[in-house]
């Protein structure tokens, strides 16, 4: 007497939806992770900065979705308020891992969330740089390099004095 177990592994990696371009401390993050179609259904886990989320208040469980040929997909939500501890060096790594018995299948999808302060400063420097290049007709790459470097140094000095 033998028991045969048939499984169908997902063809797609998990998908994270709901990610915004920028967040600020105090914002509420609402994300969903959806697995690919499989049998049995994938088990999902969320990680923030490589730490698995165990807090049941932050996790939102949805019933599995049923698809043709007995396949299913799962969705797990994540909702929490951002605090300073979430950002290491101006960014936070959010990852969703899908697995079907670790021996059979494991896949993940990661999203990097930026704090608002870092990109605004970078955008300001790039904005000054592009305006400078557009205003003047640059004859050679050496001139461009010197001009842009001077603009960058002025912008960095202004930023340093403002803080």
Describe it for me?
A hairpin with a 2-residue loop joins strand 4 and strand 5. This protein has three helices and eleven strands. The strands form three sheets. A five-stranded mixed sheet has the order 2-11-10-4-5. It is of the alpha+beta class. The C terminus is likely disordered.
CATH homologous superfamily descriptor of the largest domain: Immunoglobulins
Multimerization state: single chain
Helix-strand pattern, N to C?
EEEEEEEEEEHEHH
CATH class of the largest domain, anyone? Mainly Beta
InterPro entries: Ig-like_dom_sf, Ig-like_fold
Give a concise summary.
A hairpin with a 5-residue loop joins strand 7 (65-66) and strand 8.
Name some characteristics of this structure.
163 residues, alpha+beta, five-stranded mixed β-sheet, four-stranded antiparallel β-sheet, 11 strands, 28% helix
Task: List the topology elements.
Elements: E1 15-17, E2 22-23, E3 28-34, E4 43-48, E5 51-52, E6 59-61, E7 65-66, E8 72-73, E9 75-81, E10 91-100, H1 101-104, E11 105-115, H2 117-135, H3 141-162
Parallel strand pairs: 2-11
Antiparallel strand pairs: 1-3, 3-9, 4-5, 4-10, 6-9, 7-8, 10-11
Helix pairs in contact: 2-3
InterPro entries: Ig-like_dom_sf (IPR036179), Ig-like_fold (IPR013783)
């Amino acid at each position: 007497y033998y028991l045969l177990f048939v499984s169908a592994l997902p063809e797609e990696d998990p998908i994270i939806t709901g990610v915004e371009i920028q967040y600020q401390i105090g914002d509420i993050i609402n994300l969903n992770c959806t697995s690919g179609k499989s049998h049995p259904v994938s088990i999902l886990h969320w990680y923030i900065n490589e730490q698995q989320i165990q807090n049941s208040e932050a996790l939102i469980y949805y019933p599995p979705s049923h698809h043709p040929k007995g396949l299913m997909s799962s969705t797990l939500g994540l909702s929490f308020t951002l605090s300073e501890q979430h950002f290491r060096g101006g960014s936070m790594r959010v990852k969703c891992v899908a697995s079907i018995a670790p021996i059979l299948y494991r896949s993940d999808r990661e999203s990097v969330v930026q704090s608002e302060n870092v990109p605004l400063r970078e955008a300001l420097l790039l904005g000054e740089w592009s305006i400078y290049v557009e205003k003047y007709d640059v004859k050679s790459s050496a001139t461009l390099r010197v001009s842009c470097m001077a603009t960058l140094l002025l912008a960095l000095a202004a930023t340093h004095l403002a803080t």
